[in-house]
Amino acid sequence: MSSLAPEELNSISDMRFYVLGLGPIGCLLAHNLRSVLPRTHPVTLIQKTAKQAWTPQNAAAKITVENQGVRQSTDGFDIEVFDKHSGSGGGVRFNPKLSREESAGFTPSDGDLRTEPIEALFITTKAHSTAPALSHLAPRLTSRSTVVLLQNGMGLYEDLVQRIFRNPESRPHFILASNTHGAWLKSAFHVVHAGIGDITFGIVPDSRKRDFETSMADESKPLYERSLVLDDITRPDDPSFDQYRSLRHTVAVLQSLDALGCKWSPVADVQLAMRKKLVVNAIVNPLTALLGCRNGGLFKDESSQNMMRSIEADTQLWLDSLAPGVDKSQMSVGRVPKELGADALEREVLRVTHVTRGNMSSMLSDVRKNNPTEIDFLNGYLVRLGEQYNIPMPVNRALIQLVKMRCSIPIDQTF
């Protein structure tokens, strides 16, 4: 049963929700959006090319999610394909009646091209693919739009602000999310939900100085009774309601995704969760990519355990530098939140690799497919921050170079 209030559901009847990035997490998210929202609320899947869009599953507009052998399917999605000829960020309505060959050579008419503003966009692409995709869609994103970033690594929001959304007055609202679900694609649009986790999300502070976390400062209640409420974002009698309408409704929809364990938290808590996940991914992803093993193959021997601890030690001074009140020039060890302490991080790494022991990491998959990896948004992000804080990170630097060396050598090369 969805936790979305009926009156909230009725108020978003004219909103269309877009999903960009149809890997395992994107498909899992789209499936749950379609399961929760009535058919009067369109959910649109964005594909880069018509060739990618044309599959039997796409023709049926159907996504299947499998968990412990039980399959559930949702259909009724709309599909758009990037129009490379459009300067307005347009997307072409996908026509499943055309063959694969006809789709590839299809020239859209005005009736097939969508150029209206996008109100809500969920992005689950690889981190390095996000900026190019958003550059195409930017003409359709306004200050009233809401963008949800759900990716590995950190630094992506700052990269997008620097490269695409430099003007705070026209910048969309952003929601940052940290995901701990494990999933992999069995085939196109058939995702195996291998590890049940949760999604923690928070709203990036507003350039107009609106406080989205007012209720957390209510000192009339003990801290454990305080919670974030939608009216902190906006309410129907707010003169600026239209400016924040899509943000309120997107948060409400996220809160309704009970099957994904979505939780709206203060953005500081989300940053903490993202840092924790960053360190886990910066250990697991490059090691599996280099060793060619599934997640469960790691840390069964003393050498791989020592490597895990070396990477953790590499990051501890950076994590310590993020503790409130710490002067960069006078950092001291031991002030990190307990969730980011060495022992806690080691337990989390071992927990994640056990829960996802049968999974192939996204970085290993990218290496085997000769695709770009997310190493620059994982270990690369750590190294760049280390430079800002004058913290050497030799182990992370070495991992970056090793992964890039691995990517430069064909996986099937023989001598």
UniProtKB/TrEMBL annotation:
Enzyme class: oxidoreductase
Coiled-coil ranges per UniProt: none
Transmembrane helix found in the keyword field: no
Alphabetic keyword roster: NADP, Oxidoreductase
Any one annotated GO CC term: mitochondrion
Keyword Acyltransferase: no
Record-listed E.C. numbers: 1.1.1.169
Family: Belongs to the ketopantoate reductase family.
The protein's name: 2-dehydropantoate 2-reductase
Organism the protein comes from: Suillus subaureus
